Amino acid sequence: MAPRKQGSHWRRLVSMLAGAVLLASCDPGPSPEHASQTVPAPVAEAPTDGPVVVFLGDSLVAGFGLAADEALPEQIAAIFKADGVKAKVVNAGVSGDTTANGLARFDWSVANADADVVVVALGANDYLMGIDPEITRRNLTAIVQKAVDDGIACVLVGLQPRSAVEDGSRDAAFAAIYPDIATAFGMQLYPSLMSDVENQPELLQADGLHPTEQGVKIMATRLAAFLDPIVRAYD
């Protein structure tokens, strides 16, 4: 996807000054389903020049159980800095968020951050909560469409269920959401955020779901390498 056209920042600023309502959608579109009220995402920016890269996600992005500088976006920001990749990284992760929550706060967490790139890492809570995969598909599609409409480059992070995926199962339906959306929009797909840590108990916290600091470092190294050429394209 191409960088945003000049002037989008000022249009957004004018919109904010005009009294845009928090969490309101800029364009008519699918309403988030099964959304609950959420706290606005924390915004932590690395003090560097370059494109704004927003990570829109849940507890795996927010850094559940970890210090603020140990969260995934902050670890990626450190890798970018060490590798000479100019970027301003924003952690827009909220623990417990579903795809519906992410859609509901897209304007607040992503558009208002003046993002150049958004990394969408949502869906794990939908899966754990038993939400219908078609609802998850619609919400993720609406999130990606918002990014497209705002001229924001979008990277989708996939979900791979830990159990064996059988044809026709709910797991199979969830696993198919991400490649289907990526293909439909011709966008970048990062297949699985936790593939290298989810089956390694020593890299997981006591709940068996969230990565330790070392687990996040492994995740960050792989994802940073994937994002590197995408972010450098904005230098």
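That was protein one. Protein two is written in the same sequence-then-structure order:
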Amino acid sequence: MVREQLQSRDIVEGSVLRALRKVPRHLFVPEKYRAEAYSDTPLPIGEGQTISQPYMVAFMTQALRLKGSDKVLEIGTGSGYQAAVLAELVDSVYTIEIVEPLGEAAAKRLQALGYENIQVRIWDGYHGWPRQAPFDAIIVTAGAEALPQPLVDQLAEGGRMVIPVGPHQGVRDLVLLRKKRNGKLVRESLMPVRFVPFTREN
């Protein structure tokens, strides 16, 4: 997977490649899909959600330019795979999942695998995690129609956020935001993508 799907493309950050080698992706997908766990495609994980293809996980992670001391917020825990990859790279990961069965299963899975530097919260990710803010990096693994302002507010000065933005049922723009001094945002378009919609509370 790492050699053929990541290194052969544009994933060059050594720490990201090591993290993708180490995390057992097959343990984060339903048993009936385990034979496909390392294929270059997203897979269903239940509740209408998916685990992103390995390349997208690697690309979004690399785009954040993480340091070991970073505090990272993830919106959209899903099966917990992206959180596990992040936990191999940074000191602390805070991850939010709105779908309770997915969040509970991910928390148990991550605990069983020994990830003590991940905290899971079942909650509407649009609001972020104010009590733990600010964050050095934020990664959103679901497509939003617009930038969630609470997440922008919780980004530290010098922080980075990667998020798919665009209309539901259409192609979205994977965006990298950097917060400069005085809260100024620098926005960079990375690539067109398709993601499941950002789920909100009713």
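The first strand starts at residue 43 and ends at 46. Keep this in mind for the problem set.
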